[in-house]
Amino acid sequence: MTTIDDRSAVRLPDRLLIGGEWRSGSAGTVADLNPATEELLVDVQAASAGDVDQAVQAARAQLDGAWGATPGAERGRILNRVADLIERDAEHLARLEALDVGKPVGQPSMLDVPNAIATFRHFAGWADKITGSTIPTAGYFGRPTHSYTVREPVGVIGAIIPWNTPLMISGWKLAPALAAGNTVVVKPAEDAPLSTLHLAALLQEAGLPDGVVNVVPGRGDVAGAALVAHPDVDKISFTGSPEVGRTIQVTAAETFKRVTLELGGKSPQIVLADADIEAAVNGTAMGLFFNQGEVCAAGTRVLVHRSVYGQVVEGLAGAARAQVLGDPFDGATTMGALVNAKQRDRVLSYIEAGRAEGATVAAGGGRPDGKGFFVEPTIFADANNAMRIAQEEIFGPVGTVIPFDDPAEAVRLANDTRYGLAATIWTRDVAAAHTLAGQVRAGAVWINGWAAIDPALPWGGMKSSGIGRELGWSGILANTEEKTVTVVL
Ligand code: NAI
Ligand code: MG
């Protein structure tokens, strides 16, 4: 453990959790930086394939042991206690998240932490309500039958977490898995493992038996890959890049693991001519700049009716210029740093690509001087949907604004992408809103508000944005196997 600065005066978690023990890893350490200062926060212990194997064995033992026999009501009580403990440590968790990811501390206080609390409470409620059904059948060689289904845990689940909203995504993967009676091995991201490790300590404090949740920080291509290849892991739930998602699905096929993949997007925000333009500009800007744009559902393709195009571009450029970049712990800061130098360089290279393709920089377009992985919030106008800045996920504060002439063209542009995670529609016309919602190929459609997420709502993407759904009853389905039982009477 290491102590850090006066701002939080906390000890940073830096070890693996296997079978209830906080241990060193056998694969050295991974440096975890503060993205806003580029300084080392802590060298986090890194798991080897051997460590991952021990974590999987601990998880398997609990599945076949006490946890496997724990009633849903008791699992629910534990999940509710976890929610209480996250609530108790809300400020600490928000600080850890800000420190580790580089985001302004007000954002995890407002979103990530309350969402984690709500997610654990939501799934605490499901834990004793995971039912099957009775199904009338035609009988068996003239004899009557009684048939019913039950839902059983999938087994040992490997949860691979990204660095952008790690606390929230850890909750999205852990809460439904535990509610349904699974055991879990969590692989946090190299760049932001701290809030997940703290959450693991809270799970312990809440009375979760040792070994039900194990955490193996470390490298993706070492610890993550070992988890994916492990023959005794039944399912991988992954949120991250399409490239890694593809390798996970290929590797998982070897052992017929189930996979849930959430792979980001290039989500459209459609502004129709009749929209409340002020609300649309504010909401669209949030969809571009929240969390430095490092959001899988970021609304990075802003499709605007030509009659209001100039007004929206101007509004978004103003919103970009109004962002205050700086210290995540300064109350005036509205945008923090990108997570690491690689991500900053990736975003800057897309900004160059946008320029080279002939789009106009309406705001931003560079990086501020000084320390920290900051990039200026950037708006591209005069863009078209074929440009790389309209087709590829940038994962930074960059918006591409594209005009359209009628709603049919808006739908065509919205769907002209390999992704399909989310879409936002800004309009006052109820019929247009629902018509477009039906026509856009996306896992989530939000009308007049970006990212209206809730743990009760299924979450996941169409097309290259992923496979499967998390959260809500769909999250329970994704974490259970259905079994049919038939009695010949
Ligand atoms: P990544 O996909 O490499 O990392 C996500 C997680 O996967 C991390 O925990 C990482 O350690 C793990 N991982 C990496 N290689 C692995 C492997 N071979 N086997 C198993 N696990 C592995 O994403 P990265 O490189 O950090 O970011 C690159 C881009 O990915 C971003 O610019 C963004 O476009 C996208 N991304 C999307 C996210 C989303 O929310 N859908 C989240 C993070 C990144
Ligand atoms: Mg970090």
From TrEMBL:
Signal peptide: none annotated. Pfam families: Aldedh. The keyword Oxidoreductase applies. InterPro entries: Ald_DH/histidinol_DH, Ald_DH_C, Ald_DH_CS_CYS, Ald_DH_CS_GLU, Ald_DH_N, Aldehyde_DH_dom. The active site is at E262. Residues 22-485 form the Aldehyde dehydrogenase domain. GO terms for molecular function: phenylacetaldehyde dehydrogenase (NAD+) activity. Its EC number is 1.2.1.39. The keyword Cytoplasm does not apply. Keywords: Oxidoreductase. It comes from the Bacteria. It is an enzyme of class 1 (oxidoreductase). Belongs to the aldehyde dehydrogenase family. This is Phenylacetaldehyde dehydrogenase StyD. The gene is styD.
